[in-house]
C-alpha cells in the first residue's frame, strides 16, 4: 500500500502543497475529493455523523479514523476515553499532530484483549468489510470487542440508485455478486494506489447480516443521499 490517502491527509495537516484526491470505482467515473472535508468540525458534518457522535458514550473505538475529526470531537468536547485506529500510518501521524492522545496504526481484526462501549465506523463504515462474504468475520470481531450494553454505530448507503433501470423499472445490477461490492482506486499527485474492494451495504442486508451474527440492528437515521446510520447491539 502506497498510503496515498494518508499522504494527502498528512500533506494537508503539514501544509505540504496538498491536492485533492482523485477517486474512481467500478461503477463511477473519476471524481475529485477535497481533503479539507476530512478536517471538518462538528458543525460541518452531515446529520448522520453528528447523530453518531451524540449517541457515542463510554469508552470509544473509532475505526478507520482518517484525519481524526470524529475522535477529536469525542475526546475534546465530550471528554470521552477515545481510541482512534487506521491502517494508514500517515493518517495516524496526522491524528497525533492534531492532538489525539490514543491513536494507533491498527487493523480492527488484530485488536485483542480490549472492550469498548461504543465502536464507530463512519463515512461508509461498511466499506472496510470489503465484500459481502467478509461481512460476518468483521461483525463477529466487532461483537467480541463490545462491553455489555455496548453499541456499534455504523453508516452506509444503498447505491442501487447508481444503476440503470430497464423499461419495467427494474435495476440492471450485476448478475454475479452483490451490487454494493465495488473496486476503489485512489490517485494523488500523479501516483495511483492498487485498487481495493469497498462495500456499500443497503440497510436490509446489514440488518440480516447482523441478526445472523447475533446482533440486534436498529435504523437510527436516514440521510438525503440513500445513506443511513444504524446501531448494532448485543
**What does the average pLDDT come to?**
96
Give the low-pLDDT segments. none
The CATH C-level class name: Alpha Beta
Q: Note the main sheet.
A: 7 strands, mixed
Total E-strand runs: 12
Our estimate of the beta-strand percent is 25-35%
Shape: globular
The number of domains is 1
CATH superfamily: Vaccinia Virus protein VP39
Q: Total helix count? A: 6
Distance between the termini: 34 Å
**What is the topology, as strand order, of the major beta sheet?**
5-4-3-6-7-12-11
What sequence of helices (H) and strands (E) makes up the elements? HEEHEHEHEEHEEEEHEE
Q: At the third CATH level, what is the topology name?
A: Rossmann fold
Portion of residues in helices?
10-25%
Structural class: alpha/beta
CATH architecture: 3-Layer(aba) Sandwich
Taking all Cα atoms into account, the compactness measure Rg is 17 Å
How does the SSE layout of this entry go?
Layout: H1 4-13, E1 21-25, E2 28-33, H2 47-55, E3 60-63, H3 69-76, E4 82-86, H4 89-97, E5 102-105, E6 116-121, H5 135-144, E7 146-157, E8 181-188, E9 191-192, E10 196-199, H6 203-212, E11 216-222, E12 227-233
Parallel strand pairs: 3-4, 3-6, 4-5, 6-7
Antiparallel strand pairs: 1-2, 1-8, 7-12, 8-9, 8-10, 11-12
Helix pairs in contact: 1-4
Amino acid at each position: 500500500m502506497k498510503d496515498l490517502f494518508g499522504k494527502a491527509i498528512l500533506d494537508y495537516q503539514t501544509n505540504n502543497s496538498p491536492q485533492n484526491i482523485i477517486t474512481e470505482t467500478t461503477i463511477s467515473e473519476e471524481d475529485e475529493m477535497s481533503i479539507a472535508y476530512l478536517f471538518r468540525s462538528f458543525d460541518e458534518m452531515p446529520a448522520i455523523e453528528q447523530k453518531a457522535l451524540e449517541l457515542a458514550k463510554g469508552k470509544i473505538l473509532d475505526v478507520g479514523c482518517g484525519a481524526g475529526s470524529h475522535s477529536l470531537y469525542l475526546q475534546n468536547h465530550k471528554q470521552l476515553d477515545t481510541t482512534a485506529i487506521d491502517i494508514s500510518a500517515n493518517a495516524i501521524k496526522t491524528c497525533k499532530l492534531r492532538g489525539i492522545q490514543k491513536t494507533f496504526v491498527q487493523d480492527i481484526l488484530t485488536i485483542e484483549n480490549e472492550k469498548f462501549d461504543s465502536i464507530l465506523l463512519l463515512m461508509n463504515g461498511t466499506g472496510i468489510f470489503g465484500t459481502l462474504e467478509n461481512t460476518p468475520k468483521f461483525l463477529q470481531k466487532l461483537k467480541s470487542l463490545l462491553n455489555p450494553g455496548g453499541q456499534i454505530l455504523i453508516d452506509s448507503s444503498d447505491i442501487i440508485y447508481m444503476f440503470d433501470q430497464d423499461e419495467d423499472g427494474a435495476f440492471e445490477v450485476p448478475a454475479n455478486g452483490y451490487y454494493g461490492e465495488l473496486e476503489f482506486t485512489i490517485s494523488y499527485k500523479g501516483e495511483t494506489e492498487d485498487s481495493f474492494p469497498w462495500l456499500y451495504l443497503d440497510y436490509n442486508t446489514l440488518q440480516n447480516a447482523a441478526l445472523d451474527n447475533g446482533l440486534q440492528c436498529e435504523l437510527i437515521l436516514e440521510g438525503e443521499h440513500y445513506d443511513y446510520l444504524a446501531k448494532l447491539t448485543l
